[in-house]
Amino acid sequence: MDLYEYPPNLDLRKQAQEIPGSKKPGYSAVWKNGEISPSLRREARPHLTACGLAGIFPDDHVVRDQPATLFELFERSVAANADRPIMKWRTLLTPATPTQAAVFAPTLDAQLTYGDFGARRLNVGKALLRLENEGKLGSRAEGASAKPEYVDGANFAVGVWSLNRPEWQIVDFACHAFGLVGVALYDTLGPNVVEYVTNHAPLSIIVASANHIPTLLKNAPATPCLRYVVSMDKLAHQEHTILKAWAASVGVELWQMEELERYGREAVDVHPRPPTPEMPATISYTSGTTGNPKGVVLTHETVTKGIICQASGQGHALQHWTLMSYLPLAHILERSLELLAVASGGIIAYSTGDNLRLLEDAQIIKPDFFPSVPRVLNRLHQAVLAQAAAGGLKGALLQKALTAKIEHFKQTGEVTHRVYDALVFRKVRALLGGNVKIITTGSAPISPDVLLTLKACFSCDVIEGYGLTETVGGITLNIPFDTVGFKTAGHPRPGVLIKLKDVPELNYTSDDKPYPRGEVLIGGPVRLKCYHKDPENTAKAIDEEGWFHTGDIGVIDDCGRLKIIDRVKNVMKLSQGEYVALEKVEGIYGLHPLFASFLVHGDSLQSYIVLIGVVDPVQASQYIQKVLGKNVQPTDLAGMQKLLNDPKVRQHVLYELQMLAKKNGLNGFETVKGVWLEVEPFPAHILTPTLKMKRKQAAEHYREQIDNLYAEGEAVFERRPLGKL
């Protein structure tokens, strides 16, 4: 697949262009991928001179001479890379026990080539089709010979449930080759949601890691559609015997992965059944913060064009590159990036799946591409700032080097520095393996200060983008050398159309000055077909003209860059009538190094907002020492919890949060007036699988603490409270 670099001498003032005559009452004009000059067009890409109104990356390359389905995408790649590795990983040497962590090989000692991967996915696909042909996948409630329910009249759905690993992708690519519909279950889903998705899709067969098999069998009486459960892991003899008997007792067949692949190898008369572009490729269940998740139906055409569009601007990094896979594969961000890696002949290197080993994994994998999310990058940022503030010669040198490199980037757009990279930042780069060329972030807002600091530290592009499950991930992206654009989500990618819809009740309109503001609407080929079995929400999300309504509030600047500033549904009204955008203020308070995670809460019966914060134990230990002069070890969670909510500690934290708010221009009603600190992480039931907050459930869980904060009354500090600091 062709990869496009940004052309040299790009005019950063024209990153997107208005389509003439497209503005309508209540809406902004329609924006598309930006125009470049005819001279640049000839010099940089002479084969595109006849494209007319070409963009930075011409829209027509999304369809011209490119694969139309995910099956075609892989077939092209395997033909060019059959003997090259597609996946690498560390072998598990000793499984974890209640008292001992798992032991993995110290190197990427296992791998799979494109050719071998292709053969295995065909065997799995043939097995799945053979099971259907033999009448073994119909609902138990409808009799043994019943046919499985088809998704959108196209074909049946296949579930996969595990941490990121090769078998996950083998099953998914098998679906691509045989026109089946892949459905990912999040590894952190509770049994109720697994049951819901199994019935809703529905899923006749689920391929899962061994640890999830008991949950699937417990659910079986309530999921009559489920006929087969396949273990990715080889089960010990006694475990296999017990689980197989349990499965039989609830009317389910239990197989192991090797059985499924053998069943396919024996099916000599079964052949690939390639999909057409309009057929559904996947139902991607969104990690909703309220109610049951919605099933986003994405066609082969939509996903394939989304992957091609994401290749634009990454040619400098994506030639035989290594992607570190640790973000959840069931989330569209990771899934689309792994598809991009495969399409461009790259290598997917799987982490151990243990977040505590993240840096260890990175140092062994040595990735070129490190996709990430704000919570991970914020922790790296805090660690760097802590070193710079530590004092001494090393701290002073790091601070000087950071200041110099950030200023150098602002002046030149370059992320390297001949002196400081060798003298200071070589060791910092080694934290992520020393080979990182590009770091991307999405899923939530991130501070521009974090992006700048990490650009300097890792001497690589650190790029923010914007996208949703419904748009196959990223649809806008920063240009790496744009010295102002790092404060935005960047320009529209090829084939993507963007316009803004007025939201007058929140005072956002397309006529706002200096730039139009409103709800972000997405047009073009890179959007969902529908929500599965949900015409009501489909009609709400996709209007009569085919525009997808994201629910995000954005602004488009004079260079054509999109910036997300709010969320329609995450805005709450305080008792005095002021509106607070909770995600916006959380983006500011997230700059405080004390927090590992936190929740800002507002109540329409109250006049101010409060914060529940989960602390980083190492940071909290140091903070308590500074404020109270008391020593508490990071491992002494009980002792730390007691000291954290000493009034003096809470007052100091609250003062610093209020100074952060003031520094970043928040209004008085956007400033937290109460804070409660916790050492225990947020429980799983108040978080989505992508770690977004379920605000209603979180408020219920912390109801006592929230009520106490409001009972204490609002606290405002104009100067630092008395204490050791």
From TrEMBL:
<keyword id="KW-0547">Nucleotide-binding</keyword>
<dbReference type="Pfam" id="PF00501">
    <property type="entry name" value="AMP-binding"/>
</dbReference>
<dbReference type="GO" id="GO:0016020">
    <property type="term" value="C:membrane"/>
</dbReference>
<dbReference type="GO" id="GO:0005524">
    <property type="term" value="F:ATP binding"/>
</dbReference>
<dbReference type="GO" id="GO:0004467">
    <property type="term" value="F:long-chain fatty acid-CoA ligase activity"/>
</dbReference>
<keyword id="KW-0067">ATP-binding</keyword>
<dbReference type="InterPro" id="IPR042099">
    <property type="entry name" value="ANL_N_sf"/>
</dbReference>
<dbReference type="InterPro" id="IPR020845">
    <property type="entry name" value="AMP-binding_CS"/>
</dbReference>
<dbReference type="GO" id="GO:0005783">
    <property type="term" value="C:endoplasmic reticulum"/>
</dbReference>
<feature type="domain" description="AMP-dependent synthetase/ligase">
    <location>
        <begin position="157"/>
        <end position="531"/>
    </location>
</feature>
<protein>
    <recommendedName>
        <fullName>AMP-dependent synthetase/ligase domain-containing protein</fullName>
    </recommendedName>
</protein>
<dbReference type="InterPro" id="IPR000873">
    <property type="entry name" value="AMP-dep_synth/lig_dom"/>
</dbReference>
